[in-house]
Amino acid sequence: MAKCAVCEKSVHFGNNVSHSHRRSNKMWRSNVKSVKVKVNGGAKKMYVCTSCLKSGKVERA
C-alpha cells in the first residue's frame, strides 16, 4: 500500500466489532493519490495524501 511522502500516513489496522461483539480484522486505507509535485524547480511524481494537498503542504506541478 502507498504511503504519503510528506506526512508518512499509510494504512491503519484494528478490529471490526459486530453486534454480538465478535471481532475480525479491519484495515483502514488512507486517501493517498499519485500526484505530480514541484520539487527543486522540476516536476516529480509522488504519493501524497489528500489532507496534505488541501493544507497546501505540497504544490502541484
Automatic annotation (TrEMBL):
The keyword Ribonucleoprotein applies. Keywords: Ribonucleoprotein, Ribosomal protein. InterPro entries: Bacterial_rp_bL28, Ribosomal_bL28, Ribosomal_bL28/bL31-like_sf, Ribosomal_bL28_bact-type, Ribosomal_bL28_sf. Signal peptide: none annotated. GO terms for cellular component: ribonucleoprotein complex; ribosome. The keyword Ribosomal protein applies. One of its GO terms (molecular function) is structural constituent of ribosome. GO terms for biological process: translation. Belongs to the bacterial ribosomal protein bL28 family. HAMAP family: Ribosomal_bL28 (MF_00373). This is Large ribosomal subunit protein bL28. It comes from Hominiventricola filiformis.
